[in-house]
């Protein structure tokens, strides 16, 4: 007798999955030091409650911490801390007066949602502004003057910034070096893969590494004058990797095994970049029996040794960035819809908080704001993970109470929870909630009262906030359960078509080669972003999640089309005749038809394909992608049929 299948649904598996990233030990140490040191000093001086208030001021920097250059981190952490201080001050001024605090919190929620459209740093700063505005409204119960409370907060914030940036002078370029070296490490890993699934995962990691490296270097000072020669040298090392990357992708797509000496050389380049040492000598190309792809790889290795000059770019001025943000608000209704949803749910939370019988029920509003952050993924997924993480966190808090933690033991626990929050931030949102919950309980509550009712109240408040989000912000909100991912997929087809137009022609100038390189990076970055967007939606049990599963074979097919295009481009660079403009037009027309079919919710029409042996790989992958769009698929329905269930909504989006 066979056992019944109790397999978990796909959305639950995706929801509970943690990212396979290494433990960020540097962030763990900084978080523990930032939050525990003020407590330790205050306890040694006889007033641990003061240390808890200062530790609260250090929390914005800990929650906003991210890998990157020191300049990037300084802007990110400084902006988040300043925004948190502003929100905290508003909360202090209005705390204890519902007639003032409720409108203030609702207004700050709306403003934070709009600010989020300005970019990732603005988004995290907006979140901290809202969170600490809510926390500030609860501080009136301490009985301390507003100036004293704000002073403690600022002292803790200054300490956290000092800890985060203290090694800038001795490790100024370490993050950039690590990012560039990681590109070469991932490139060697992709060439070392022994099967197609492993090589595809390695190619995804290579795309992420290249995007990260370019972002970090272009955020730094690479466009400035000669005094920034170190940054420009690193950018040259990164740009010079492009021919080797293209040749490697082409070889992997063709199923060819690269020479071991090429892999060893790439590993040596990574080590040299990390150690700021001269690059090793590239291997010489064999004189006999070398096809176009192998020759392109050896030429790419030679290019790494020579380096590559990149055109200087003019950084955008603050006024220009403000104008771009304002333009996105005017032309982007989705930002206003997200702001309206957040504002409405926060208002409901504030009303409910007045009705519950617990003191300091600000956690209801806090939960709603954190879960409904407009640009952080699935509302359903974050609400469920927040609830699960809080239940686990409250359990930890109960254990802390049961053992009667106080004094130095409390300091050690704060350090442990801070380190756990740093790990959870990069692994899983539920894990983050598991450690942040007891951390804030100890900072905001137990230092004053230390009672079991406080822990249970936090559990009820958080679950109430999650229920408000799921009910008002998800189940009852128009369109929240309808698929919204088809448009991004169609845009990715267009981006790949642009890459086809530049990759399948012979380039004779440096400007044309640079344009092809940028088009390739744009195509692969669009595919990486597309995967991320679908992974955020796939955690939902609604039709949106099921449609994301249905689209997954289409995304994989588009990635294979892009790899096949890269292979053709590499062979053209090694002397193979380029396809005719008519053949290129047939490929781009096929991609345009796929994009149109996705946008118009219909099966794609059959398209003529080029009868060119050099494009056989591209044609085969295009045919598979057409089949994937039409179905059948993982849910036994075409993704387009799933879209048609919500046809009016999709035509609006």
Automatic annotation (TrEMBL):
Coiled-coil boundaries: none
GO cellular component: plasma membrane
Any Pfam family the entry gives: FUSC_2
Highest taxon listed in the record's lineage: Bacteria
Record-annotated Integral membrane bound transporter domain positions: 351-472
Regions that span the bilayer: 35-62, 74-93, 124-142, 148-168, 392-417, 429-447, 459-477
Claim: Transmembrane is one of the keywords in the record: yes
Keyword Membrane appears in the UniProt entry: yes
Subcellular location: Cell membrane
Keywords associated with the record: Cell membrane, Membrane, Transmembrane, Transmembrane helix
Topology class, membrane: Multi-pass membrane protein
PANTHER family with a match to the protein in the record: MULTIDRUG RESISTANCE PROTEIN MDTO, P-HYDROXYBENZOIC ACID EFFLUX PUMP SUBUNIT-RELATED
Recorded family membership: Belongs to the YccS/YhfK family.
Full protein name: Putative membrane protein YccC
Source organism: Amycolatopsis sulphurea
